Model the fold of this input.
Amino acid sequence: MSLTLDWRVLAACAAPTVNPEVMYPGSMTGPHTAEARKICRTCPVKADCLTHALETDQREGIWGGLTPKERGRFRAGDGTHLDPDGRLRKPCGTDRAFRVHKTYGETCNVCQEAHDARVLAQRRRLLEEAHAAGGSTAAAAVHRRIGEPVCDLCLAAQARDSANRRARRNSVKAERALT
Ligand SMILES: [Zn+2]
Ligand SMILES: [Zn+2]
Done:
């Protein structure tokens, strides 16, 4: 019981200078929650506050620097967590976590490998589409970027493209010779 009182007394939003209504913005979009989040960032008991909000299922207001929707992600158990600085993080390996690392200038092997795997999967999808359409010069470049030999389909497409380019150049030359 006294523990519960402790963190509430220490909370940054409990300061007499803070209007408690600030913690309950009418809308949970960025601009409306900015002031509350700013207060939470300086709060020494943010983690206790968040824990309490989750345990008591608070559906309104900013608790522990998070909106009800963000707190919902904790409940969903998708690995969302607070880092030591109290920032909301997605589990490592996700695209979101990768981008947040970038924002903070951090390197993370787990996220980097997951990112590389996603990029590779995307390139493979591009190749599949290109092959279904008979191969292409652009797809040949994708083969090279992946570090694999260009397939016969794409080699043929490349040869066709450069033959077409040559033909166009020649016809322009022939056209110029006429004038
Ligand atoms: Zn990571
Ligand atoms: Zn190919």
